Amino acid sequence: MRQIVRWTSAMTMALVMWFTSACVYMNVKQPLDTDLQETQLGTKVGRSQAQSVLGLVAWGDAGTQAAARDGGITTLRHADRETLAILVGVYARFRTVVYGD
After folding, report:
1. Which pLDDT score, from 0 to 100, does residue 39 have?
2. What does pTM read for this prediction?
3. Number of structural domains found in the chain
């Protein structure tokens, strides 16, 4: 009987860890482009970001216009989106990185 309880507890713990593993820490970078083989990055880089705590308080501007302004870019060539989340959204950061001239 004890072995069954131990096995059930171990399996439950393994399943909980499996399903919540991405909820503890997530750092994802993704391109915002549909034609990657034709991408030219340009000579300038600009960044913008917004942050959030508990989904209740948020600040910043993660838009492409703010990122282009940051890098002094007038012609956008490519953009990336970066998302960082810690402890299921206790803290989250959304960043836009643009490339151009």
Report:
1. 75
2. 0.73
3. 1
